[in-house]
Write a structure and sequence with these properties.
heterotrimer, A alpha/beta (about 250), B mainly alpha (about 260), C mainly alpha (about 270), B: mainly alpha, two-stranded antiparallel ribbon, globular, C: about 270 residues, 11 helices
Chain lengths: ~250, ~260, ~270
């Protein structure tokens, strides 16, 4: 595990988040190392989405420092932060095909068609979307849509990627394969990411670093072992359940 | 069964159109002849001359296009503040009123103030009065656009680096296009079909297709009345044919009346 | 800003009508007077017009509702999606054209009268029982019912699908209801309940119609909207204050009833709304 103080990809300090005058999170402090993923677990309604939206600069009120690669971004509007927010819903633009969706961010930056292709083609391959390039997003399956949304986010080479339970609405098998895909692509491309989820196994699968949101606080753990050792995260209960199940199975 | 009912539906729609067509060519059609005994195409061949029908059609077209462009444009820009207003329910109620009221009452109410403002008896006044109605319709229809989903689309575009202007031109406008097209057609038709406001605000000095039709019926010239009616049916037919099968769009919203 | 755009014209015209009707403005203004209001409220014709409007609205709506239910009963296949949405009611077929067509088909010298002559049923135009210009308003009612029928079919069809009435119908039948019982006890009541707000708006629009009554209605009794225009006096200015008083009364009635309808609608559970 890298030293958290060293050249952090994303650093948040003393961040208070409120929504409609109601305090959601207080005094959030954490740093995500470059090229690694901070997995944040928290129950529904704990403020995970509010935290991501505050980081991305979308609505709500946030006070505190947000730094991306040592640059303060908290005063910047969303489109100038270099932080891409991946919604739980893929939200593919219905007026563009798969290729148009993935290349959308590059079109915003006035890249030529050939330079867009240089970025988009490898992404299409890496995400297993070959053959679907000119499909209408409405005709894709849930997993395919989520992969396109993922590709659209990666195409702009974001400094930080925020993922808001992106796989929550997928069936278990697709979900597992998407988690694996995310791990692989994140490692290959050196992505700095913040991944929030309410699912313990997903949290353990995708994270390099770990944090939990509970009661308006964000608690960061020094490592995987520390995360698992905290009974509030439910790892011990999970292990106990499966070992009991194993014991009774063996008895039968 | 299905085919029979389809044929019945088409007949119900086409038979009146056919009768209008026959009447528009009927030079002499005394009772009780089943068909006209003298035919003439002059209602159509002399469109520019006969009773000013062609001129009335062009006037209707000009007014309706202006009304549709302004109402749709203004409605698009302002519908967001209606959709996001705190007193949205009250605003929606206000917007529905002119329709529930029957445009005649609106026209009678506007007549005197338009007269004093010098807007009675001319094209601008008629277009403005119809615009009030069309604008209300446009806002009702287009406020259905500002769903949480569209908000999420715009936010998604922003985090990908879209400036507010790019978010409008590259995301919002393409998303809204089907609805804007529908809005344009409907507001065009509101103006195109309107009789009451032309009568009251135009005060007899503005002749459109609808007022011409009524004039021809009053003077007993059913041939030209039928021709006016067919001209009136033309744009809605074109709209039906071109818009009959809208794309199954996740955003195709309709206001609930 | 948005309030001024949306409410401004309505408020302006209401204010002008009020001022005119009580003699504060206009060519005949002689200072504050409620004479026009008294005349309107005292006039039998006002109440006859009101009653006639309600009758025409209710009858047109009733007939087209029965027609739409009948079509749906005979033809359960989904109606094609098209521009024909219920909301398009005021603007799909021009009322002027509908009125003219009614005259050409149903008039004493119309297509049906000629057909009746050809079949030997009648000898003179006057023998044909034409509903046009009838004092009962039958011509208006028939024309409006025909105009609204397609929208009600589409509305009912869409509501049936939104509320999955077919599944509820099946559920009722597995519980032992006969098909006709399921239709009358489950489908129709649910359909009418969820369509009620839209039907209310249709009723208001049909009672306030202008062009069709103008073309196919009798000269007496008249619909309220026609009465207002008559009073507003293309030739005689002296009745104009009465026209404004009547128009305001009418507007008030519509505003209150539509507000009540909206309130009722928001108080019904969300799933029941279309």
């Amino acid at each position: 595990m890298a030293d958290p103080g060293m050249n952090p990809g994303l650093r948040v300090s003393g961040l208070d988040v409120s929504l409609g005058g109601r305090a959601i999170l207080r005094d959030v402090d954490f740093a995500v190392d470059p090229h690694s993923t901070l997995a944040v677990i928290g129950p529904s309604g704990s403020g995970k989405t509010s935290l991501l939206r505050a980081l991305a600069g979308l609505g709500g009120r946030a006070n505190g420092a947000i730094e991306v690669d040592r640059r303060r971004v908290d005063a910047l509007p969303a489109h100038r932060r270099g932080i891409v927010y991946l919604n739980q819903e893929p939200l593919l633009f219905p007026h563009l095909d798969v290729r148009g969706n993935i290349g959308f961010g590059l079109r915003l930056r006035h890249r030529s068609a050939s330079r867009i292709a240089v970025v988009v083609d490898p992404l299409v391959a890496a995400l297993g979307l070959q053959g679907l390039e000119s499909r209408d997003p409405l005709t894709l399956s849930g997993g395919e849509r989520q992969r396109v949304a993922f590709g659209r986010a990666l195409a702009v080479d974001p400094a930080v990627l925020l993922l808001d339970e992106p796989f929550a609405s997928l069936d278990p098998a697709t979900r597992l394969s998407m988690q694996t895909l995310f791990r692989q692509v994140a490692r290959d491309r050196g992505i700095t990411a913040l991944f929030v989820t309410h699912d313990l196994k997903e949290c353990l699968r995708v994270g390099d670093q770990f944090a939990a949101i509970r009661d308006g606080r964000c608690r960061v753990y020094p490592g995987r072992a520390a995360f698992c050792a905290d009974p509030a995260n439910g790892v011990a209960a999970e292990i106990a359940f499966w070992s009991d199940a194993g014991t009774s199975l063996r008895r039968e | 069964m299905r085919r029979v009912s389809n044929i019945a539906l088409w007949t119900a729609f086409l038979a009146p159109v056919a009768l209008l067509l026959v009447w528009s060519f009927a030079w002499r059609w005394p009772w009780p002849a089943p068909l006209p005994n003298r035919w003439r195409a002059s209602a159509w061949t002399d469109l520019a001359a006969t009773g000013g029908l062609g001129a009335a059609a062009l006037r209707s077209l000009g007014i309706a296009t202006t009304v549709a462009v302004v109402a749709t444009g203004l409605g698009f820009v302002t519908s967001r503040s209606v959709a996001e207003a705190r007193a949205r329910e009250a605003l929606q109620w206000l917007l529905h009123l002119p329709f529930a009221l029957s445009p005649v009452v609106l026209g009678v109410g506007l007549e005197y103030s338009f007269l004093r403002a010098g807007l009675a008896g001319n094209l601008v006044g008629v277009a403005l009065a119809q615009g009030i109605l069309a604008y209300a319709y446009a806002v009702i229809l287009l406020s259905g656009l500002w769903t949480a989903r569209v908000g999420a689309f715009l936010e998604g575009a922003a985090t990908l680096g879209a400036t507010p202007r790019q978010a409008w031109t590259l995301v919002l406008l393409p998303l809204a296009r089907p609805l804007l097209a529908l809005c344009f057609v409907q507001t065009f038709l509101i103006s195109w079909f309107d009789y009451a406001l032309v009568l009251l605000i135009g005060g007899g000095r503005v002749a459109t297709l609808t007022t011409s039709l009524y004039q021809f019926v009053q003077s007993g010239d059913l041939r030209l009345a039928a021709a006016s009616a067919l001209l009136l049916l033309l744009p809605p037919l074109v709209a039906l044919v071109t818009q009959a099968q809208p794309r199954p769009d996740a955003l195709a919203g309709e206001p609930d009346p | 800003m948005i309030w001024a755009l949306v409410g401004g014209p309505l408020l302006l015209s209401a204010a002008f009508m009020l001022a005119y009707s009580v003699g504060l403005t206009g060519l005949l203004a002689h200072g504050l007077s409620f004479a026009a209001w008294a005349t309107v409220l005292d006039d039998r014709v006002t109440w006859i017009s009101l009653g006639f409007s309600c009758w025409v609205g209710a009858a047109s709506l009733g007939i087209s509702m029965l027609g739409a239910l009948a079509v749906l009963a005979l033809r359960p296949a989904p109606v094609a999606r098209s521009m024909l949405t219920p909301w398009s009611l005021p603007i799909a077929v021009p009322p002027m054209v509908a009125g003219l067509s009614a005259v050409l088909w149903l008039g004493n010298a119309g297509a049906l009268a000629r057909a009746a002559y050809a079949l030997g049923w009648i000898r003179r135009p006057a023998d044909f029982p034409s509903p046009i210009y009838s004092t009962s308003g039958l011509g208006i009612i028939v024309t409006q019912a025909a105009l609204v029928l397609p929208f009600l079919i589409v509305l009912f069809d869409r509501l049936s699908r939104v509320h999955r009435l077919g599944a509820l119908d099946e559920a009722a039948r597995t519980l032992g209801a006969s098909p006709s019982l399921a239709w009358w006890r489950v489908r129709v009541p649910l359909l009418l309940r969820s369509a009620a707000p839209t039907l209310g708006i249709y009723f208001l629009a049909l009672s306030g119609a202008f062009e069709i009554p103008l073309l196919v209605g009798a000269s007496y009794p008249t619909m309220l909207s026609v009465r207002v225009v008559q009073l507003s006096g293309r030739f005689d200015l002296s009745t104009r204050p009465q026209a404004y008083a009547l128009a305001l009364l009418y507007a008030l009635g519509v505003a209150v009833s539509s507000a009540v309808a909206r309130r009722l609608r928001t108080s019904t559970p969300r799933t029941e709304r279309i």
